[in-house]
Specification:
It is built from 17 helices and 16 strands. It has helices at 23-26, 39-46, 56-59, 67-75, 79-87, 93-99, 121-133, 158-169, 186-189, 198-210, 227-232, 263-270, 298-309, 330-338, 407-410, 442-445, 450-468; strands at residues 150-154, 173-177, 214-216, 237-240, 246-247, 260-262, 290-294, 314-318, 342-344, 347-354, 360-373, 379-383, 389-391, 395-398, 402-403, 437-439. The protein has a five-stranded parallel beta sheet. Strands 6-14-7-8-9 form a five-stranded parallel beta sheet. Strands 10, 11, 12 and 13 form a four-stranded antiparallel beta sheet that branches.
């Protein structure tokens, strides 16, 4: 047992930089961009932590990771203990350490960040998880005593996987039903290999299988079977983590031209269907010489960076607000700029132009200015009269958001949705308008973050246990 040295004085030094592939090299491959801390760098970064008694960073974590405790273990070079502490509340640490917006959550609450740079909590979480994954002698977790109850989880994205993992630890027999041919949800079809390697997702899912979770693919709930069928088959509760996979379009002329993609199709073909490995894999994808991606979120950044790697000579972000209002992570914007992405902010498309053969030739846009804040808290973009101009492009990717697929709600009596098609829940636990059916993640909130979806899955698992065990 390692000695408790939590009273060590923190070391004052700059935040440790994350090593990364050279931009000139990485735009020609799909290998991971951020290379991760080695053990010495992780220890040095952990030594910066103040070990606050009332740790505000934990308040910023949707899955309640015991942050100061695991950071102290890394500082003491006990990576196994650090990993075990994280896994106690977070089923997917290697994923969270890579894609969660720590800068607006746990790190935003870090005391060091008030006068300087916060502790790199996400990078340290990744370091502990990667250390554990690299070991061939990992011990499988002890399975709890079965409690005789069965729960069906629909969707194998971050909400579903988290709910399944927590329930399995409580002794439930859990089956996850996935519509696609591989599990992972948005983690495999939406997030590119260079940001989240698919081997990492596979390893995290294997860890859940070690807990006794069964994952069944190629089952479209609402089509292959229904929620009512699941109850008829003996499941005691159902969790819906079906995500938000229905793409939104702008409704402007020309969106049906050849060469216009939704970001969902563009990323699914690229990531899940391995178009970037064509012709080794059977999925082709046509990327023109100049690609415009409409939007300013992480999905837009993923799309535009994929376009460069797929051979585009120019890849352009077209966003109607200024860079300050972009919802994408600052790190993703920084990486995109390093890679040569062109940013056309305060610019809004009004029409997609095409030739007689029906292929995209350009994007007609209007320049914008910012007015008063709207309901999102961001300043409202207003068109500048007479400022129209044309961007010459031959591919357009629309990345302005997604909504939930209505298949489950349309085939489940008593399941209500709001005007945006999101499942309505009665409380923070995710209980829907149908008894014994919970929901969480993007299916409830619309497109949001991985860690927020995980938090929803965690809350739902606790509520399911409480109801099925007659505790409330």
């Amino acid at each position: 047992m390692s000695q408790d040295t939590t009273k060590k004085k923190p070391v004052k030094r700059p935040r440790a930089e994350m090593p990364a592939q050279d931009p000139k090299e990485r735009i020609r491959n799909f290998n991971e961009v951020a290379l991760g801390y080695d053990e010495e760098t992780a220890v040095a970064e952990a030594e910066r932590c103040l070990q606050c008694k009332n740790a505000a960073c934990v308040e910023g974590c949707p899955v309640d990771v015991r942050i100061p405790e695991f950071v102290a273990k890394i500082r003491d070079r006990d990576f196994q203990a650090a990993y075990d502490l994280i896994k106690d509340t977070n089923s997917l640490p290697a994923i969270c350490g890579r894609v969660c917006p720590q800068e607006t959550q746990c790190e935003a609450k870090c005391v060091l960040g008030k006068k300087g740079e916060p502790v790199a909590i996400g990078r340290l979480e990744r370091a502990a998880a990667d250390w554990a994954m690299a070991r061939s002698d990992r011990v499988k977790p002890e399975l709890p005593e079965p409690n005789g109850k069965k729960v069906a989880v629909v969707g194998s994205g971050p909400a579903g996987l988290t709910c399944a993992g927590d329930l399995a630890k409580m002794g439930y027999k859990v089956t996850v039903f996935e519509a696609l041919h591989a599990p992972g949800g948005v983690l495999i079809y939406g997030i590119p290999e260079f940001r989240l390697p698919k081997r990492i997702v596979a390893e995290e899912i294997k860890a859940l299988s070690d807990l006794g979770v069964d994952v069944v693919c190629d089952v479209v709930v609402g089509k292959t079977i229904t929620v009512d069928d699941l109850f008829a088959e003996g499941y005691d509760a159902v969790f819906l983590g079906t995500g938000a996979g229905l793409p939104m379009f702008m409704g402007i002329p020309g969106e049906t031209l050849n060469g216009v993609y939704s970001a969902n199709e563009f990323l699914t073909r690229t990531n899940l269907m391995k178009a970037y490995l064509f012709p080794e894999w059977d999925t082709p994808i046509k990327v023109g010489r100049r690609v415009a991606v409409v939007g300013g979120g992480n999905v837009a950044m993923d799309s535009v960076r994929c376009a460069l790697r797929l051979g585009a000579e120019e890849a352009i972000i077209v966003y109607r607000r200024s860079e300050a209002e972009m919802p994408a992570r600052a790190e993703e914007v920084h990486h995109a700029k390093e890679e040569g992405v062109i940013f056309r902010t305060l610019t809004n498309p009004v029409r997609v132009l095409g030739n007689e053969e029906g292929w995209v030739t350009g994007l007609e846009c209007v320049r914008m200015e910012l007015g008063e804040p709207d309901e999102s808290g961001r300043r409202r973009p207003i068109p500048i009269e007479g400022s129209e101009f044309v961007l010459e492009v031959d591919t357009v990717v629309i990345a302005i958001g997604t909504t939930p697929n209505p298949l489950v709600s349309q085939t489940t009596p008593g399941l209500e949705v709001n005007r945006k098609g999101c499942l309505i829940t009665r409380d923070e636990s995710g209980l829907t308008t149908r008894d014994l059916v919970w929901a969480g993640g993007d299916a409830v909130t619309g497109a949001a973050t991985v860690i927020e979806a995980m938090g929803a899955g965690k809350r739902a698992a606790a509520a399911i246990d409480k109801v099925l065990q007659g505790k409330g």
